[in-house]
């Protein structure tokens, strides 16, 4: 990897890693189901950026874009399904509290 | 490069705001902001098609999905909100600390980037790649959209009383 | 003869056994009869041939090798003989019973698996057929009376665990010998090889039904269909188990006189003889009593083979075939009694000698054989074993003789209770068993007599060729066994007889029913006996032994307990702890995954 | 014509949904049954006209690069069998018309996803189809919209999303290192890239993602919840095949033919496998819920497979693939048993059962077969595969792991025995006198699976040499 590339990678790398940490922290620490999904979105954003970055660095933008487009479609569907599950949970529990999801244990 | 740096900082700030804000709707707006910044970054990384997709689908569609989901559920009352705010303060002040520590760790353990970059295939037109080389993914996209449709049909239907 | 003919005795019964599930009801008996007959004819035709048939198998790594030679031909012939008799017997016995199709299917499959196991010249192939037999055993017991399912599972697990040991043994043998072909394995008795031997031996003797792998047999006697008992535990499994034991101790491992394994085998044999026969003594059911003898007699064979001297091995093998004869004969008489009277409880039997004279005669001959009474076959094989045991140590001889005494005593009791004694009112209408039940019994009884009087027939043709050069030209046929030992045996038997007559008289006065001959001490009887000093020491000893055998009974249950609940008990606490860790709160799970991720990345750092 | 495994179900989804629902439920039942059985036939008999013919027309229109080897074939076979069984069970367990139609649609999506997963030769396509299978599973678990089902689905979704993020990071790094995503290119690129930090991180992250997907300790938190909360047909599908394809199969494929089994990866896989075996088995000991216990036992069995993969010798891989097949069969069998008990009793709590063999003989007997096969009692099929794995471990010199695997199978036997006693043996519990044997569909599927277990156990040499 040449010097300029390494430089670019380095900055993006730190930002992406911190975005990962934020997303993971949000998922683990928040008590609201929708916030959990937002945390998940943050993680996926970081991955998207990483993919594009690797494509950019290896001059392989075409493939990287193709992958990212597919990835975005899949991401949307997962969010839709997750949203549906969260709405159903709300209808059942009358609450979005994650701490009420402890029925199955042991 | 400087613009990239500013955008990255903006990305992190938007991310932190998304995590720390009290109102759910604001959090969704924060996510949309993150998405927007990401799509600008993608655009600047020579990937216009993906940037357009990211902007329209993620910043747009996903925000709509979240707002819809929130509208299906009830908002909190003002007092509960106040309680929550206190709760959240206790919980979330760790995050900046963790981020700073993690950032320092990343800087200290900087990975060596001396590996050679691979030779890449000559075909670089995204549309060509999607339509001619990655049929299987295309099939997967159609299929997962179908699955999503079934999901919406099954999960969002109002239960019969 | 083409070597591939060796596939026939495996394939024919297997195919017809599988077909049995779908054949029409009426054809089943005929087909089973025919296939058993064909199998017998095949076994006779193949006997005395030497053939090897093999082709690469198991992705080319392992040979599918079948080997027919003197020994395997002999075992195959005996198995075919018994299978044929049992099928004839079952034609009538199983009439009107449920699940006949399964019953016949299992018999035929059993023949196929047994033939395969005997012919296999490759340890993995042998294991394959061995496990097939286990499965059939399970099915066989399970089709018995309601509730047999539990017994079947018990048998399956106990035998399964011992087969697991055998598997370890095979793996170890493979590792040390570098081959799985049985006829090529020849290992010196290093400690590692000794361990392998013990593992294989566990597989062999548990198939034969030796202690401590026996506890399912008496339960099966209660639950399984009777021809099963006469076929599997009484004859076939003994044949296979002892066959394999002989193979491993003569061919695969160099077992020398005085090696610790020889001592171990003899000890197992002696203990099995004594303990099982004492448990037999307190049984009150025809089939259950026989089933304990089925265990006890294995002890003689293991003892004989364990001595490692030619006379002992000849005796052990001779005893194997003799035991198969008279034990299946005895079970068949039990079956006839059950069929005609509807019960095998000795309390409600008695005086059947006039009602069922032929059954009674067959019983007498086979019982005399098992007790080792001259000139029946059991006498000769036991004499050979005594001879060998005496040469290895007085204690083993004593165990064998004492076992013989108790065997005789318990059979006198059984015969008295079932066939002699006072006729019971409920049994007035009982008739002699039908012909197809009688024929196998008569054949077996006659064979017992022939193998006794003309004992050179089986010895010269079947058994002694197996040992070949090892015999150094000796022949053990005829009457030339040790006179002193013979005298002692006769004395012991006479003692048992006198003792029985005396006791029967005594108790016959004390109790109204003559059939109630129990050595089990009921208190008043013990007082009565205590007045007669002549019996005192013996009765006390018997009582003591009774207590002892009850303790053994408890130990028996203890083995069950280990199998069933010990392991869960130990792990219970840990399990609870792990369950408590699964709180159901998913961030916990996510944290585990993340910690796991960092651990994995750290693990891969180099 | 191999792409037809994916394409025919794909078009049939669209065509079937054109029919009215009343008609579609029957039509799709017949069609799905035909599809799955045809798949079983095509894999088992392997007619030349199917496997060796190229679809020229299709290749112009629609290129589908695929590869077929023994592992792929075994997986296709398992997929066919388990989808068929799940279909039968859904007929018996779901009565509502809409739900039936929905389930069949999802089953088709899942079938395509799994078939494509085992056929594709591209790391990213692998991710796409894993995700398709997973999405249909989430919806299936949540389908009844009961509290527990939703909870299980949400947990599965979150953990599985994290897994996909890990895999995507790994894919991005692989793109950076090798410039492409196809198996050959990635494999060649990794071989050339040496052993830099990014290589190890990408391999490690991909493996972690797959560990979550296949439910290995300590990545297994979602698995018992999802299995036990899912509706019966979904739990059969999920436990029988979905996690095996999307986790274990992919792991095997990548570890063997892409990443290559380096000593450290081998050590990692064997260690994780052993930990899963023991934790799964011990945790299953004191479970009171039938399905939950099966779920923990599933963790333990997957541990065996991974242990075999980690050992890496040819024999071990044979054993692992064979165990994968067996596991698909007997775990589906056990979940069908659970389904039929659940259908008749309305509960899966084992404390409320007892002596059920008297009332439900087929369920009782087949469950014994399944349990003994799981515990590895000879000569059932599960025994042989475990035996091969243990032998292979021993041969490769991993004596500790071999002994360990042997010991753990005794614990397996222990918890299954205690379960047997609770549920099927013993005295019939009062209140259960009116229980009947469950419906025909479940009986048939139990019998079919039990017979497969038995027959495969008896003729295992033929099975092993099948290719």
Note the topology.
The complex is a heterotetramer of chains A (106), B (161), C (606) and D (467).
Chain A: H1 3-29, H2 33-57, H3 61-93
Chain B: H1 2-20, H2 24-44, H3 48-72, H4 78-92, H5 94-108, H6 126-133, H7 135-155
Chain C: H1 8-19, H2 25-46, E1 51-57, E2 62-68, H3 70-93, H4 100-119, H5 123-142, H6 148-177, H7 191-208, H8 216-223, H9 226-252, H10 260-281, H11 286-306, H12 310-341, H13 352-355, H14 357-371, H15 377-392, H16 394-418, H17 435-453, H18 456-467, H19 483-510, H20 523-531, H21 536-581, H22 586-603
Our estimate of the beta-strand percent of chain C is under 5%
Q: What structural class do the secondary elements of chain C suggest? A: mainly alpha
Number of strands of chain D: 0
> What does the radius of gyration of chain C come to?
26 Å
Task: Give start-end ranges of low-pLDDT stretches of chain C.
Answer: 509-542
The rough form of chain C would be described as: globular
- Cα separation of the termini of chain D: 19 Å
Residue share in helix of chain C? over 70%
Overall pLDDT confidence of chain D: 87
Radius of gyration of chain D: 21 Å
Largest sheet of chain D: none
Describe the structure.
Chain A has a single domain, classed as Helix Hairpins. Chain A is built from 3 helices and no strands. In chain A, helix 2 runs antiparallel to helix 3. The longest helix of chain A has 33 residues. The mean pLDDT of chain A is 89. With 161 residues, chain B is mainly alpha-helical. Helices cover 77% and strands 0% of the residues of chain B. Chain B is built from 7 helices and no strands. Chain B starts with a helix and ends in a 6-residue tail after the last helix. The mean pLDDT of chain B is 83. Helix content of chain C is 74%, strand content 2%. Chain C has 2 domains: 240 residues, no CATH class; 249 residues, no CATH class. In chain C, a hairpin with a 4-residue loop joins strand 1 and strand 2. In chain C, strands 1-2 form a two-stranded antiparallel ribbon. Chain C is built from 22 helices and 2 strands. The two termini of chain D are 19 Å apart. The mean pLDDT of chain D is 87. Chain D has 467 residues and is mainly alpha-helical. Chain D has a domain of 207 residues. Chain D is built from 21 helices and no strands. In chain D, 80% of the residues lie in helices and 0% in strands. Chains A and B meet through helix 1, helix 2 and helix 3 of A and helix 1, helix 2, helix 3, helix 5 and helix 6 of B.
